[in-house]
């Protein structure tokens, strides 16, 4: 196998630039996806059909269709209605956030429903209303159980961010494909991109293990 470090060196500034965009995309999608996922997860657990049904449809749609299709649909069909011309970075953050929110909503729902119903009844008997009981009793306990699956979802999100290269978002995979197109050599660009994604996911796994050890096991 003929492996050239020189062309990797030539492209390294662009790889680093793409890695920084990948980090920004992932962090923003994690932030917005977590906030949206919390509200959708709570909405799915309500007994009000006007709130429950849209939340169920949302989760079913974003979990039941490919992320690649969602990215193309949002960038090519939805964003032109809001922004002209559509910005690829905004489209990417929106698509990744909406997709992540569907999975995170299920994590929140499962975490909250894993808490014994007696906890809610005890909180209500102390004079708390439903919102106060959720805020002060249920969510603090449930959040500990949510940390491991949320960590897995965040790592998956970093890897899935490579799909936004299809709409020419200048992230890590975009520059790997550009390098492949320029030199017609598959090993150098794709192995470099794989190594950088590995560093990002291992870094995220390390941070999450620290958080998990602090909040779950302490």
TrEMBL record:
The chain crosses the membrane at residues 20-40, 61-82, 88-108, 187-208. PANTHER family: GLUTAMINE TRANSPORT SYSTEM PERMEASE PROTEIN GLNP, MEMBRANE COMPONENT OF AMINO ACID ABC TRANSPORTER. This is Amino acid ABC transporter permease. One of its GO terms (biological process) is amino acid transport. Belongs to the binding-protein-dependent transport system permease family. HisMQ subfamily. Keywords: Amino-acid transport, Cell membrane, Membrane, Transmembrane, Transmembrane helix, Transport. The keyword Transmembrane applies. GO terms for cellular component: ATP-binding cassette (ABC) transporter complex. The lineage of its organism: Bacteria, Bacillati, Bacillota, Bacilli, Bacillales. The keyword Transmembrane helix applies. CDD domains: TM_PBP2. Residues 19-208 form the ABC transmembrane type-1 domain. Its main location: membrane. GO terms for molecular function: transmembrane transporter activity. Gene3D superfamilies: MetI-like. It is a multi-pass membrane protein. InterPro entries: AA_ABC_transptr_permease_3TM, ArtM/GltK/GlnP/TcyL/YhdX-like, MetI-like, MetI-like_sf. It is found in: Cell membrane. It comes from the Bacteria.
């Amino acid at each position: 196998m003929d492996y050239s470090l020189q062309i990797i060196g030539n492209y390294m500034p662009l790889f680093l630039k793409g890695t920084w965009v990948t980090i920004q995309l992932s962090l923003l999608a994690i932030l917005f996806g977590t906030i949206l996922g919390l509200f959708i997860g709570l909405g799915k657990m309500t007994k009000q059909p006007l709130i429950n049904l849209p939340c169920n449809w949302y989760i079913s749609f974003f979990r039941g269709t490919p992320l690649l299709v969602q990215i193309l649909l949002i960038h090519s069909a939805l964003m032109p209605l809001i922004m002209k011309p559509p910005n690829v970075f905004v489209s990417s953050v929106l698509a990744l956030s909406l997709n992540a929110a569907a999975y995170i909503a299920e994590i929140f729902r499962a975490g909250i429903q894993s808490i014994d119903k007696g906890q809610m009844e005890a909180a209500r008997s102390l004079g708390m209303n439903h919102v106060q009981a959720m805020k002060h009793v249920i969510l603090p306990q449930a959040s500990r159980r949510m940390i491991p699956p949320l960590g897995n979802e965040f790592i998956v999100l970093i890897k899935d961010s490579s799909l936004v290269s299809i709409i020419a978002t200048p992230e890590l995979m975009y520059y790997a494909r550009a390098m492949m197109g320029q030199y017609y050599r598959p090993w150098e660009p794709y192995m470099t991109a794989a190594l950088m994604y590995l560093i990002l996911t291992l870094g995220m796994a390390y941070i999450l293990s620290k958080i998990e050890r602090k909040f779950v096991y302490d």
